[in-house]
Design brief:
Metallo-beta-lactamase, Chain A, alpha/beta, 13 strands, 276 residues, seven-stranded mixed sheet
């Protein structure tokens, strides 16, 4: 196993970094610098980890998990939404500590097994300071061959019968989101997020608003728009996105409707390497 060849600490944070939030008794997320990792399950029971945070932060997230679930109680599995650097940054450290299965969409497997690298972030894209600084973000593949398997084709998550995964391409080819029907909780990864991710100020203060996927790493805007429209049709009552604070209720409904209806105006940048 190894992290990417360009793996490095990214000097970026927010006022929410280091804070954890219980959305329900069994749904908890922790903000690691500028990205959220989600832990599903109650203490004393099997639990599951969604995504693995920023580079060089594996030990931090392990400590958070041990504080919540107990020392040396690993997750039953790790579910990856996709393989971008800020969602797999701590995974090798975690797998060295926890010998557990990892699941990802088959289209993401090449980026997780050292076979293919993502396109370099688009510093030319319309957006704020963080878009211009995106050249510092890692984009080389990690290699966790032998540890990662494809999600079951039926949309189920192994060990979590109430949850299912949904293919949500656009931001990356094999991105997935996670949905629980009974309370309509959606873990939306970077399909849409709740902060303007290219704005340094809004990321720092975590200004809460429904936004499209991060502009500097989204490579297929047509697919991204289709994904947002499909997720709007789920009528989620609560969203935990990959970046930003969780949202719920009328504010979420109105924001997601507006994003889906006006995606080309609100989300798609006016120019950039991946804009057709």
């Amino acid at each position: 196993m190894k992290q990417s060849d360009d793996n490095r600490m990214i000097p970026m944070t927010s006022f929410s970094s280091g804070n954890g939030t219980s959305v329900t008794d069994d749904v908890y997320y922790y903000t690691n610098q500028i990205v959220n990792v989600v832990m599903l399950g109650n203490p004393g029971e099997d639990w599951f980890l969604i995504d693995c945070g920023m580079p060089e932060c594996g030990e931090e997230i392990i400590a958070v998990a041990e504080d919540r679930f107990g020392k040396d109680i690993p997750p039953a599995a790790i579910f990856l939404s996709h393989g971008h650097f800020d969602h797999v940054g701590g995974i090798v450290k975690m797998l060295e500590k926890w010998d557990v299965p990892v699941y990802a969409h088959p289209l993401e497997i090449p980026f997780l097994t050292g076979k293919q690298e993502y396109p370099e972030p688009d510093t030319s894209v319309e957006g704020g300071l963080l878009a211009k600084l995106s050249f510092i973000y890692p984009h080389k593949p990690i290699d966790i061959s032998g540890h990662v398997s494809e999600y079951p084709e039926n949309g189920q998550l192994p060990g979590l019968s109430e949850w299912h995964w949904i293919h949500a391409p656009g931001h990356s080819p094999g991105q997935v989101v996670f949905f629980r029907e009974k309370d309509r909780i959606l873990i939306s990864a970077d399909a849409f997020i709740t902060v303007r991710q290219d704005s340094f100020y809004k990321v720092l203060i975590q200004k809460c608003e429904v936004q499209g996927p991060p502009r500097y790493l989204t490579t297929d805007w047509a697919a991204a728009g289709d994904t947002v429209a499909r997720l709007r049709n789920l009528s989620p009552s609560v969203v935990i996105s990959g970046h930003g604070q969780y949202m719920e209720g009328e504010e979420l409904r109105l924001g997601l409707n507006k994003l889906a209806d006006d995606f080309n105006t609100l989300a798609v940048p006016s120019h950039g390497r991946f804009v057709k």
